[in-house]
Amino acid sequence: MNFDDIKKLMEDMGNSKIDSLDIEFPDGIKISMKKEKEVNIIQKEQEVPNIMIKNESNNNINEKPEECKIIKSPMVGTFYSSNSPKEEPFVKIGDKVKKGQVLCIVEAMKLMNEIESEFDGEIVDICVKNEDMVEYGMPLFKIK
Questions:
Q1: Across residues 80-96, what is the average pLDDT?
Q2: Highest mean pLDDT: which of 44-48, 51-55, 88-92?
Q3: Which residues form the domain of 78?
Q4: What is the pLDDT of residue 91?
Q5: Which CATH number fits the domain that encloses residue 127?
Q6: Do residues 26 and 85 share a domain?
Q7: Comparing 64 with 130, which gets the higher pLDDT?
Q8: Mean per-residue pLDDT, 81-88
Q9: How many distinct structural domains can be found in the chain?
Q10: In this structure, how many other beta carbons lie within 10 angstroms of the beta carbon of residue 102?
């Protein structure tokens, strides 16, 4: 069985309703294929804690909380804070970021996807650790 035959077999299985396939040929070649089932994950909206501003002059807390904007993961994958383990992270807490600036990488199916900031602001929280698994819609960064 050559590569084109295997490729055709994979395409045919992808277009069928079969979930798995095991074939053993008389010459000893074994082929086993299994479809990954699509899983829909329903995640509740997570509340973002408000950051309260302390008024130094009279030690009261102002009634106006600062609203944080959240950068969420656009996919399921592995979170990386830098291009490689030897490099500095793209951003740290307290860094000022611009819209379009790369914040991290999410690896999905061996593809490295750069996640960019959707807002100008300051990083107030990094919600995940380097090499953590992330889900679709999971908060990655809080920006004020």
A1: 90
A2: 88-92
A3: 68-143
A4: 92
A5: 2.40.50.100
A6: no
A7: 130
A8: 88
A9: 2
A10: 13
User: How many CB atoms are located within 10 Å of the residue 6 CB?
Assistant: 13
Asked whether the beta carbons of 140 and 79 are under 8 A apart, the reply is: yes
According to DSSP, the residues that pair with 33 across neighbouring strands are 21
Separation of alpha carbons 10 and 52, rounded Å = 56
Note the pLDDT of residue 42. 52
Query: How many CA atoms lie less than 13 Å away from 70 in the CB half-sphere?
Result: 15
Q: What is the pLDDT of residue 27?
A: 77
- Is there a domain that residue 45 lies in? no
> Residue 101 in contact with residue 87, Cβ under 8 Å?
no
Specify whether 78 is located in the same domain as 138.
yes
Token pair of 143, please?
A: 């920006």
The answer to whether residue 59 sits within a structural domain is no
Instruction: State if pTM tops 0.85.
Output: no
Contact 41, 136 (CB under 8 A): yes
Beta bridge partners of 99: none
